[in-house]
Amino acid sequence: SIPRWLYAVAAALLVLLIGYWLLPLTSPETTPTNQALFADHFQPYRNLVVPIQRSQDSLSTLESAYLSYEKQEYAQAAAQMTMLYQADSSQTALLFYGGISYLAFDQPDDAIFLLQAYLLEKNEFQDEAKWYLAWAFLLKDKNTQARELWGEVAESATDQNLRKQAEEVLSEMD
After folding, report:
1. From 151's CA, which of 56, 106, 137, 159 has a CA 20 to 30 Å away?
2. Rounded CA gap, 92 and 85, in Å?
3. Contacts of 140 (CB under 8 A, 6+ apart)
4. How far apart are CA 120 and CA 11, in angstroms?
């Protein structure tokens, strides 16, 4: 006959194995990294300022900058937009799209600079600028500032879709 202690050892091993197998199912979900959140949610804003006609033979410098943006050539777009804004500071949308361009090619410091400058101008894309500025802060591991901005967007953005996206990102950070 089999000794009793062997049954006890087998039972203990069985309990440990079952516990080990169930552990991943019961452990709290890990919060995604800032980079993973960015990869899952970041989308550059569509060009609403300078519509580009693909059939145009010659483009102005401004149109060329926005064409670079639309072609996802963000480094070039950011450089062009920064230069154009320095030449004509009345074109404040260049700060907004330039900031997004910097963000799209992983230059959050430059994005923060341009987007904060844009927000000071009190222009049309205020909620959207806060949304993108929050992403830049997140990439710099400034989660508190990112949360504050997304909180503002979730509470008061006029675009309901943007509100919903901000709420979603905030819930994923919790």
Report:
1. 106
2. 7
3. 108, 109, 112
4. 68
